[in-house]
Structures are given as C-alpha cells and as structure tokens.
Design goal:
Blueprint: E1 5-9, H1 14-25, E2 29-34, H2 37-49, E3 54-58, H3 64-78, E4 83-86, H4 101-129, E5 132-137, H5 150-170, E6 175-182, H6 188-193, H7 205-215, E7 227-230
Parallel strand pairs: 1-2, 1-4, 2-3, 4-5, 5-6, 6-7
Helix pairs in contact: 1-2, 1-7, 3-4, 4-5
C-alpha cells in the first residue's frame, strides 16, 4: 500500500485508529474522519509520527453532504483515493420491543446510510484511478446477534448485502469491495455496552486492521463481495 491514499470513517478511536496506524506503517497516506476533532487530531499525530501524511476531516457520514465532503477533501489533499474503510458505527443494546426510536434512527443512519453515501461518492473518484478497494466494517451480530443486538445486527446485515451488491456493480471498474464482520473487539464501544465481557474473548483492534490491509492486496481480488468473519 505504499504511496496509496486511505480514507477511514470513525477514525478517531478503536478500530478506526488501529486502521490508520496499520496503513501508515505500510506507507499509505491517511485521512481520518469522524465527529470529534480532538480525537482525530490525536490519531493524525500518531500517524505522522510513523512518517506518513495524515489529514483529519470532521464529518458525520450519516449526512450525505458530509460523506461527499469527505471524499472531495481526500482527493483535494492527496490527489486520489485508493482505499475507503467504512468503519463509523453506532450500536444500541436493546430488545426491539423496548428500543428508543430516536436512537434507532441514528443507528440506522450511521450504520446503513453512512456506508451507502460514502460508496456513492467514492466510486467516481476510484474510477478515475483505475480501481480501488472499499472495506465495510460489519459485525458477527449480522449472522448471530447477541441478545439485545438484534436491531444492530440487522443494520450490519444490510452492510453485508450492500457489500455484495457493490462488488458486482464495481467489478467492471477494478473496484473491489469487502466486509469484515468482527466478533467482540476490545474498544470503548464494546465496553460501553458490555463492561464485564471477558477480556480473553475479545480481539485487539489491530487484528481487524491487519485483515483490512490484507484485503487490499491484489491477491484477494477474486474474493470481492465476501464478508469475512473474525473472532476468537
């Protein structure tokens, strides 16, 4: 991935931060996007300490205008975009009968509309490059929802199907599309919902980042459209 440009949503912490550092270690320039500028700047400084360029972009990808702005700013900053990681996510721990509808609408917008918006706007930019890779972060909950994560898992099932559809649509343009469906990952999001989850059953965020980097290898091109599940 040397000399490539990678844009990562939800890049201010957790899996997004691990993604930024992993791609930077392999020589990529990075754009980290999210809603918290302080967190984004902290990650950008870590990336720069590895010798890579990094630009923080404040964006709420559940809004189409912000998603378009992210892609535009990435291309302005670095001249191209080779990899898009749709990592921004929102989770509600609730059974459906008790779910707060406003919170559900927010989760649906972030988890489903967000990657749809960014994909819509990145495809044109990647066509100009002659190709690229889109990686959507899904969840094991899409296939086997933990109690209380049914609605969350349903939004991630959308991500899996979107991935498959995009892979078919984008194949003629040299754009590969994958989804990664992690189990429990040691992040603030996990601990916010499951503070007592056994630490020996969680994955480090770096493991997800390493898999994402692997998927950008041309050797994986014939696996485009798949969701790769990863857990302990």
């Amino acid at each position: 991935m040397s000399n490539s440009v990678v844009a990562i949503t939800g890049g201010g912490s957790g899996i997004g931060r691990a993604m930024a550092l992993e791609f930077a270690r392999h020589g990529a320039d990075v754009v980290v996007a999210g809603r918290n500028l302080d967190k984004l700047q902290a990650v950008a400084n870590e990336v720069r300490s590895l010798g890579a360029n990094c630009e923080p972009v404040v964006a709420d990808v559940s809004k189409a205008g912000d998603a378009e702005d992210l892609i535009t700013k990435t291309v302005i900053a670095f001249g191209r975009i080779d990899v898009l990681v749709n990592n921004a996510g929102n989770a509600i721990l609730s059974d459906v009968a008790s779910i707060d509808l406003k919170s559900f609408d927010t989760m649906l917008a972030v988890n489903a509309a967000g990657p749809t918006y960014t994909a819509k706007y990145v495809i044109g930019a990647m066509k100009k490059n002659g190709g690229g890779t889109i990686i959507n972060i899904s969840s094991m909950a899409a296939a086997d929802p933990f109690p209380g994560l049914g609605a969350y898992g349903a939004t991630k099932a959308y991500v899996n199907l979107l991935t498959k559809a995009l892979a078919s649509e984008c194949k003629p343009h040299g754009i590969r599309v994958f989804a990664i469906g992690p189990g429990a990952v040691e992040t603030e999001m996990l601990r916010g919902s499951f503070p007592d989850f056994p630490a020996d059953q969680t994955l480090p965020a770096k493991a997800i980042a390493e898999l994402a980097h692997l998927l950008t290898n041309p050797a994986c091109q014939y696996s485009s459209g798949q969701t790769i599940y990863i857990s302990k």
